[in-house]
Amino acid sequence: MQAITTTLASADGSFRLDADVFDYTIVAIYFAVVLGIGFLARRQVSTSIDFFLSGRSLPAWVTGLAFIAANLGAVEIMGMSANGAQYGMATVHYFWIGAVPAMLFLGVVMMPFYYGSGVRSVPEFMRRRFGTGAHLVNALSFSVAQLLIAGINLFLLATIVNRLLGWPLWVSLVVAAAVVLSYTALGGLSAAIYNEVLQFFVIVAALVPLTIIALHKVGGWQGVVDKVQPGPEQLSSWPGTDLTGIDNPFWSVVGLVLGLGFVLSFGYWTTNFVEVQRAMASSSMSAARRAPVIGAFPKMFIPFVVIIPGIIAAIVVPELAALKSGGDAQGVTYNDAILLLMRDLLPNGMLGVALAGLLASFMAGMAANISAFNTVFSYDLWQQYVVKDKEDGYYLKVGRIATVGATVVAIGTALIASNYDNLMDYLQTLFGFFNAPLFATFILGMFWKRMTATAGWSGLVAGTGAAVLVAVLSEDALGPASIGAIGLSGQGASFVAAGAAFAVDILVSVAVTLVTAPKPEKELVGLVYSLTPKEDLVDPDEGALPWYQSPVKLAGIGLVLVVVLNVIFR
């Protein structure tokens, strides 16, 4: 508790943003619009499916933008700019290796199973495939993860309010939580999605001008090359040894490609209900498949307006330059990179737009966590294990109560997040615990019909235990709880933990499957690839769609683009 108190005190006593009445007015108008969308969306909510899945009625472009905006939250803006300031261009791997390929895979291969099976959540898919054991483990672990990650978004949202108004951080936490709670509890997923679409454009409007002004300030890209510290190697994405914390270049690349690019990336994008929920709200299977593919295109170019400003912030902001060189940073951390850049470069008016963009990103992230949590809590935990067979309105009410409860808990988990100087370290640790073993179970169960229900839950538990063990043995993945027995730290420890979770999950699942009985094949139709008729995986008219509405063709274009970007910025 002492560490938390110190962190909060230093946050309250550090720099302020010099906003004026015009900036406050822009922010106030934005808040009013956000709340207005919540009230309007409430009119469309009459059933639990309306509240939790928007009635499965939204077009692909809406769910596609919401898909990416839900991820464009605190971690994406603050965390990736912090990584850019600290590690440089190697941070692009979180996008071009650690996101886009998995998003395309989700749209082409996995969404037909999610959408076609008619499930209301990812844990419900687990229940149908593996039974209640794996379902309960998945639902509980997912719920805990969302409460912890919502705390990250809330902490950074409250930090903006603190910097803007000078309120104590605990007051800022409560106020920020109340705003997100208001529109999420009113309109459910529809309110969250419509706000996410709005927030996407507000975020772009905030970050693009900031990037242009920052580049002008430093003398263009050549100025970045000349001035970046500790040297031009910070502008090379491979082998990324600073990012991974792995000194050997070969093993650093292995950690990035396998730990981040395969296990963590596919584990997050293909099994994380926060993202999948947006695609499941689409009006057809074809639209659901296109949603993550559409989201992949803006995802490719976000590094240019997030990472590059972080790199420049470490050049032009005195406190960050001092932090990077080991001097007196005056209490700031890398998490402050984007805020410090805004403070030093943006005039009033533009500062208000930038603040609205940051607030938009943090609210989008937190609302995504909360809306996914309330669905899993209501359908997969409360309805399945506590109170069954009630009328639909009862579970709608439970969902709204769960939204309130999750927001209150997020205030507490925000205090945990406040202990981390670089929130990406914390987040990747959580992903290693929760997403990596889940992906192993999913991918094995979807493509191996022999895998049994007992293997499903035992593999999840063993994989999670392996990730926790690596984190405890590393130097700082769990803060004071880590004992430093192995020479890994930061995000490299998270990559290794994720790899261990995946490998252990696979090994345990295979071993247990060989000594237990599988489900009858007729119960696995629509859940296992080899047993599902191919015509069940596409809409009847998908073959007649133009190329720009074809999930497979769009995914092919996206894959080519991301390969080109990796080659250009190697």
TrEMBL record:
TM spans (from-to): 21-41, 61-82, 94-115, 136-161, 167-186, 198-216, 250-270, 291-317, 350-377, 398-420, 426-448, 455-473, 552-569
CDD domains: SLC5sbd_u2
Pfam family, one: SSF
InterPro entries for the chain: Na/Glc_symporter_sf, Na/solute_symporter, Na/solute_symporter_CS
GO MF term list: D-glucose:sodium symporter activity
Family designation: Belongs to the sodium:solute symporter (SSF) (TC 2.A.21) family.
PANTHER family membership: SODIUM_GLUCOSE COTRANSPORTER 4, SOLUTE CARRIER FAMILY 5
This protein's name: Na+/galactose cotransporter
